[in-house]
Amino acid sequence: MASIEVKRFESPDETRVFAGLGKADVVEVGGRTVGRAQYEPGWRWSANVKPIAGTDHCETAHLGYCVAGRMHVWMTDGNEAEMGAGDVVAIPAGHDAEVVGDEACVFIDFGQYADYAKPH
Fold first, then answer.
1. 11: buried, middle or exposed (CB in 10 Å: 19+, 13-18, 0-12)?
2. pTM of this structure
3. CA gap 7, 100 in Å, rounded
4. How far apart are CA 116 and CA 111, in angstroms?
5. Nearest Cα to Cα of residue 71 among 89, 55, 53
6. Structural domain of residue 20, as residue ranges?
7. How far apart are CA 66 and CA 57, in angstroms?
8. Residue 7 maps to a domain
9. Residue 40 and residue 102: Cα distance in Å, rounded?
10. Residue 24's pLDDT is what?
């Protein structure tokens, strides 16, 4: 018989600190990796995660919910969009992103988060 799993971001399985300006609390639940990232004002993927990931662009596909703040995302193909609190988004691999404004962007990510912001 399957068991119910309950975890809290306040007691994460792992915390991944970005190269300044944010962190991600990560839990493993139901065989999936789920992250709650807090991106501080001034955060940009190419400045704060690229040094960790070692790739030219973010190669993680994200599927999630924006809890607070705003973020602008640029795809390598030129497509771009902005998300804000209350938005549910799917972002394919191959992008850069940055926080918009002076409020932290908090994002719950159910996508391919197992290797996000981890050295490759």
1. exposed
2. 0.93
3. 30
4. 10
5. 89
6. 14-109
7. 21
8. no
9. 8
10. 97
Q: Is residue 35 part of a domain?
A: yes
Total domains present in the chain = 1
DSSP string of 26-61, one letter each residue: EEEETTEEEEEEEEPTT-BHHHHTHHHH-SSSB---
Ramachandran angles phi, psi of 90, nearest 5°? -125, 125
Residue at 96 is within a domain: yes
Residue 105 tokens read as 């962007």
The burial of 47, by beta-carbon neighbours within 10 Å (0-12 exposed, 13-18 middle, 19 or more buried), is given as middle
CATH of the domain at 79: 2.60.120.10
Asked whether residue 99 is assigned to any structural domain, the reply reads yes
Over the stretch 104-114, which tens digit does the pLDDT of each residue have? 999 999 999 99
Summarize pLDDT for 14-68 with one digit per residue, the tens: 999 998 899 999 999 999 999 999 999 999 999 999 999 999 999 999 999 999 9
Rounded to whole angstroms, how far apart are CA atoms 86 and 10?
21
